[in-house]
Write a structure and sequence with these properties.
The protein is mainly beta and 134 residues long. It is 14% helix and 39% strand. The chain starts with a strand and ends with a helix.
């Protein structure tokens, strides 16, 4: 089975979580709600990639976020591709009153309570990834 390693990060501000809607310009999972995600390149450290993706996708610098928790990697079968799985490295960060500046990968963002996540059409297993951090 082919595998792709990715990071998925959530940002918390008080009791709210940031979720992003993937734009129609990305290759996969268009229009679905997600955390801040990106492919881990070569032998890159997952935490380093998570911080890079946060800066690229929402414009929050490393000094404005605090790592609250990481979880063991999760393996999720990809519904899009046969014989493929995602190895997801989950992270939960905190930021106080951050300004969100989306890049082209996402079309909108929302701050939600954890229990609201089930109301959104999300990338596969997003709730499972989030709950591994709570």
């Amino acid at each position: 089975m082919r595998s792709t390693k990715i990071v998925t990060s959530f940002i918390k501000d008080n009791e709210k979580l940031l979720i992003l809607k993937r734009s129609d310009k990305v290759k996969s999972m268009k229009g679905l709600w997600a955390g801040i995600s990106g492919i881990i390149e070569k032998n890159e450290v997952p935490l380093k990639r998570a911080k890079i993706e946060i800066l690229e996708e929402v414009g929050i610098t490393e000094e404005r976020i605090t790592l609250i928790r990481s979880a063991d990697e999760l393996r999720i079968n990809s519904p899009q591709y046969d014989n493929h799985e995602w190895e997801i490295f989950p992270f939960l960060f905190e930021a106080k009153n951050p300004t969100i500046n989306l890049n082209w990968e996402n079309s909108e963002f929302k701050w939600i309570n954890v229990e609201e996540l089930e109301k959104y059409e999300t990338v596969p297993s997003l709730q499972k990834v989030l709950f591994s951090l709570l």
